Please model this.
Amino acid sequence: MTDKEIDIAKVIADEKNLRMLINNTDDPIWLVDVEYKIIECNNSFKKWVYHFIGQELDRGDNVLHDGLNKTYLDKFETCYQYALNGHSFKSVEDMLVDGRLRYTSVSFNPVLDKDDHVIGVSCFARDITEQRKHLLRIEEQNTALREIAFIESHKVRGPAATIMGLALVFSNEENTTAENKEIIEAILTATDQLDAIIREVVRKSSKIGLQP
Model:
C-alpha cells in the first residue's frame, strides 16, 4: 500500500470513528457553514428535526429549512448569525414535540480556521425538560411559601396585636374579677407566644429571601 493509499485509509477510518462517536448520543449534534448548509450531523439531529418539518435533514441541506415554523426560523437564523460573528452562547427553546412541550438547551459555537476566521457554527442540543420542570416546581413552592410568610407576618400580626391591646385594656379595669384577670393573663401569654412565632417566621423568611 502506497503512502497516499495509507493517508486515504486513515482519513476514512478517522471519519468512521467520528461518526460512531457523534452517533453514540441521544443529543442532537450538527455543524453548519457560513451559508447555513449542514456539513455534518448525527442521527439524533435528523430525528430531532423530523419532529418540526416532517422530514430529516442531512449533509448538504440548508439547516434553515422552509418547513420550520417562522418563529423558530427567524430565531435560529439570528442565533446562527450571532455565532458567525464570533460569539459562543446557549439558548433555551420551548418546542412542541409529538404534541408535548419540551424544553431544549441549544449551544452555538463559532468554528475557526487556522487564521481565526469563522467558517461555520457547531451546535449541540440537549433536552432539559425535566430540569426545567423541577425548577418551575421549586419556583411554585417558593411562591406559595412567600404567600404563607406574608399571611403570617402581616395578616396574622394585626389581629394578634388587637387581641393583646384589648386584653391589656380589660386587665386594667377596676371591676375585673380575679377569675377574669387570670383568663386575661392567659390570653396575654398566648398572644405573646403567637407574636414570638410570627417574629420567628419573619426572621427565617427574611433569611432565605422569601419576604415579598
